[in-house]
Amino acid sequence: MSDESQKAEVPLETQTALLPQRERRRGQSAIVRVSIGEGIYMSAMVRRIGRLFVLALGGTAFHVGVLNALVQGGWVGQLIGAQIIPRVGKVPLAFLGRVAALPGAAMLVVLAASGWIGTGAVALALIAYGAMILCRQVGQTAWWPLIQDNTSGGAVGVFLVRLRTVLRAIEIVVPIGVGLYLHVRPHSTGFAVPFAVGFVALSAAAYFVRRVPQAPDADAQVNLWVRIRLVLKNKPVRRFLVFAGAVKFLAGLMMPFWVVMFVEGGLPKSVIIWVATAQALGHMLGLRLWGGMVDRHGGRSTLSIALAAQAMLGSAWLAWLVIPADPMTLIAWAAGFYLLRGFFQGGLMMGRTWVALNAVPAVHQTAGFTLINLTGAICAAVGSLIGGVAFQYLLRSGAGEPNLHAGAIYLGVVQMSLLGTWWFKTRLIGFDKQVPARQLMLTVLRRILSGWARE
What are 246-265's pLDDT values in tens digits? Predict the structure, then answer.
């Protein structure tokens, strides 16, 4: 076995930190600042508001599926970034990718301000989103390697709690502000102001990313495809790709179409944004719990609990079949669902991040994270395209009126099918040495009961 392939088998937890502690602290602060700008940009321009914008221009569920496929397919840009990064370095690539995304963002601002509605406007919006997302993802190739550089040798969970608490707070505040604004200006021109805010925020992220310290690439002179082959020889990486790809595919089948379900159910677009902030609130409420759990026990118990709970939430979608159709009841139901989903989604993301950071060898970090991101993006994009066609067909299967019952059954069944990824989860790195979820929960229950007994 070659020296390179031997290095590829070394998990991150056995590798030494490449940056001094002071540099890592400075880098983590810079990463948080970049993330604030990116969080505002994503919340004001891309995530749910992008889907709402496409619908406001006259798009359908199919167009929403195409947009989500573009969001996921933008990870293809990381293959370009992985080729460029040895020549320019991680920080310069992260900066240039964000700057190159600004023209696409400016095009969306102009399109929204023009008030143009129709098939042509939808097509132009999708083109602008595709260009913006692709360019940003070229720069995003360096993101997880930079996080690995600036967290290696420290408590990963503590930093992720800090980072994601800020991001979830943004996902609460920004959508509420956008929702209030769109409630006053519901026409497509109302999107121009939040899009302009997103443009400024992305510019700020490009500025701050230049301040993130970077460690040298250990394999910068090795051909990308050679690096990818070496990474694929790493069994923990292969197993993570299968698990994460399956979860991403199922998410693509359902996630983009919740907003379509709400619109067809009679809720105004602005209310949807406010309700969706409940997911960010639920995510933020669980971050300290999940972060402490992965630092103390690894990713096994966190993923087990979060995955099982996420699958069980599929039954909540089936409750749509008996929920009264009045808007206030639908809003209350949606808020509760999103709150719980956000809480357990935080655990799923925290567990996946822990596994990825420990599975990818630092010696091949760029190729490793590019491969992970690209695999997940392809699976999510395929899921979004298939889901867009299937959901549109089911929704229009009624006699004139949208068939909301068929849509609810589809979303509920796909959500519950997350349990089908359970076996893949059991084969992830370090799981054979970590505390199972049932044992951890029994220990916590005993402590609670013994505390009550003493009282």
Answer: 999 998 888 778 777 777 77
